[in-house]
Amino acid sequence: MDSYDVIVVGAGAAGLFCAGIAGQLGKKVLVIDHSAVIGEKIRISGGGRCNFTNLHCGPSNFLSMNPHFVKSALSRYSSQDFIELVKKYGIAFHEKHKGQLFCDNSAKEIVQMLLSECELGKVKIQYPEEVQTINQCDTGWQVETNLGNYVSSNLVMATGGLPVPAIGASDFALTFAKKLEIPVISTRAALVPLAFTSGIFSKMEDFAGISFPVQISAGLKKKNYGTANFAEDLLITHKGLSGPAVLQASSYWQEGEPVQIEWLNQEKWETLTGNPENRLKTIDQLLIEFFPSKLAKEFATQLGLFGVKWAEVSNKNKELIINHLCRWSIKPAGTLGWNKAEVMVGGIDTKALEGKTMMVKKYPGLFFIGECVDVTGHLGGHNFQWAWSSAYVCANSLINAHSEKTHS
Ligand SMILES: Cc1cc2nc3c(=O)[nH]c(=O)nc-3n(C[C@H](O)[C@H](O)[C@H](O)COP(=O)(O)OP(=O)(O)OC[C@H]3O[C@@H](n4cnc5c(N)ncnc54)[C@H](O)[C@@H]3O)c2cc1C
User: Fold this and answer.
1) Rounded Cα gap, residues 306 and 18, in angstroms
2) Quick check: CB of 380 below 6 Å from ligand 1?
3) In this structure, are strands 194-195 and 240-242 parallel, antiparallel, or unpaired?
4) What are phi and psi for residue 282, nearest 5 degrees?
5) Does 397 sit in the ligand 1 pocket, CB within 6 Å?
6) Ligand 1 nearest atom to the CA of residue 39, by list position
7) 371 CB less than 6 Å from ligand 1?
8) Is-contact 408 363, C-beta < 8 A?
9) What pTM was estimated for this model as a whole?
10) What confidence score (pLDDT) does residue 235 get?
């Protein structure tokens, strides 16, 4: 039976990064992945350019039942630390929007960088290989796969979240945790487009492709992950709403709840309509100041005010305009699900883990890192930063089996 200091299950962002560091710290590391191609989520991320971190990444960019949990890992390995590594490899990058850093050329460069780091650490990476059973043993953990049996002092679970099963996503970490009675927070798709059965536009297809800035909020104050408000672009699609604004809101949205969309800023609307020169303009003409003409006409029609001059609008209808366009509340029918989601909300309950190490309190030598943990980043490079930060603290906290295992 082959013996290792560390076995990492999952050769994605967190698993490869952790393995490379551990190997370079002198540990004997084996990485096992069930996919035929590894690092696929990195490759497809950020439209093929990988939004690998965010300059402004901090604890407020994450959802977790314990919002303080991320602080330790993020402070020990920050976005600046990862940027230094990217620079060391000569990977060209640029800031796109609100601190989001993307590769100039290809996300494949990040995958190659992680593999090079693993090579420096003499890490053995085996794939495709199916882990069949994992058991605790005297020297740590015994892992049985379709290709062999291994023992290791440390076991790192880095199998990611549930989005995009077609490229290898699985619930392996969650099922394994439940078997060991490690608590798991229920999961749902996040950073995902929202679907609507009715109530937005007469014919969605007529408006598909239109994108413009809105303010959006979702979530209930007293429930789970709380509420959030984002100022981002909204994209109308054939099936519903998407774009950064809606993806961000989807992480906080739960079935049956409404989302609030401010299509139109009330102050700007009141400034425009308060100008005497605009008294004789029709509602649709005024709305064109803010929306593409097709949408301005649609909103004016929905309000029953198409062609009506501002001077002729009753107070009741003025209020209707504000309620409809500045405080629009609608219940999505659902999300487009795991195939279209970028991340998972929920996962391994952080209460079971040490924030400084990612080790399971009850099981020395067992770690969960990356997306399988109940830590979900906002859109914009925060999810990868969590993968890097959680992997870093884990790799630096691996135990020397015999001395520490005896405490278990
Ligand atoms: C389309 C898309 C675009 C995205 N773009 C961005 C972006 O630009 N910026 C950003 O910050 N985040 C982005 N994300 C999110 C980001 O990709 C993930 O949060 C991140 O990859 C999580 O890292 P991880 O290592 O935890 O999991 P992953 O990178 O998903 O790696 C998990 C690995 O575990 C393997 N695995 C799963 N089950 C098993 C098993 N049973 N046995 C063995 N191996 C297993 C998988 O094959 C995979 O290789 C995007 C996600 C998607 C889907």
Assistant:
1) 60
2) no
3) antiparallel
4) -80, 165
5) no
6) 49
7) yes
8) yes
9) 0.95
10) 95
**What digits encode the pLDDT tens for the residues 84-143?**
999 999 999 999 989 999 999 999 999 999 999 999 999 999 999 999 999 999 999 999
The response to whether residue 12 sits with its C-beta less than 6 Å from ligand 1 reads: yes
Ligand 1 pocket check for 164: Cβ under 6 Å: yes
Distance in Å, CA 13 to ligand 1 centroid: 6
Q: Domains along the chain?
A: 2-189+342-405 (3.50.50.60), 193-336 (2.40.30.10)
pLDDT in tens, 319-368: 999 999 999 999 999 999 999 999 999 999 999 999 999 999 999 999 99
pLDDT in tens, 278-307: 999 999 999 999 999 999 999 999 999 999
Nearest atom in ligand 1 to 169's CA? 37
Span from the CA of 209 to the centroid of ligand 1 (angstroms) = 28
Beta bridge partners of 214: 232
Task: Quote the pLDDT of residue 220.
Answer: 80
Count CB atoms within 10 A of the CB of residue 265. 16
The reply to whether ligand 1 has any atom less than 6 angstroms from the CB of 370 is yes
Ligand 1, atom nearest to 168 Cα = 47
Q: State whether the beta carbon of 15 lies less than 6 angstroms from ligand 1.
A: yes
Place of tokens 């049996």: 149
pLDDT digits (tens, 9 = 90+) for 144-192: 999 999 999 999 999 999 999 999 999 999 999 999 999 999 999 999 9
**DSSP β-bridge partners for residue 345:** 188
Distance of CA 13 to the CA centre of its chain: 13
- The stretches of 100-227 forming alpha helices (DSSP H) are 108-120, 172-179, 204-207
Closest CA to 10 of 286, 373, 329, 341: 373
Q: How far apart are CA 200 and CA 236, in angstroms?
A: 10
